[in-house]
Amino acid sequence: MSNQSAAASAKAPLFGVIAEFGSPAEVYHAAEKVRDAGYKRWDVYSPFPIHGIESAMGIGDSKLGWIAFFGACAGVFGGFGLQFWVHKFAYPLLIGGKPMVAYPAYIPVTFEPGILFTAFATLLGMLVLNGLPRFYHALFRSENFRKVTDDGFFIGIEAKDPKFSVESARALLESIGGKNIEVLED
According to the model, what pLDDT value does residue 1 have? Predict the structure, then answer.
């Protein structure tokens, strides 16, 4: 029976390799070394935000701002375009000698879809960029990883990384001071 479980675990897809570090400073410096080693699909897990960890990981600016901007543009142009089309073509009505396209009166209605589309684009963009909803994560299988909500600092290198191999990831994490190194199945 142990041969069957060993064969099953050998066939199971890997999530990656995780290692524990003792302090925020240790995980910060370890993140710099993982970044310098050329890994792209990896993350740092901590019970609280660590100042400057984004630069240590080599994370650039978020794409969410651009997604929100294009959502706002779609809302503004959609709201203005709808009013323009209605007043000029669909239901032209001359009121009090005003021009057919009285754009100053369009400002409040143009503003509202801009805000609405920005909110929806930001929410949906955040969900897509974060890979949500995710109902279960492979890290939850690790008993050691449960300390991350209290006093644990971890780095996980994912098997999806083009440079990933279990041996090289394990060796790197050991060389930079990682303890309790685990290989996790997905």
Answer: 41
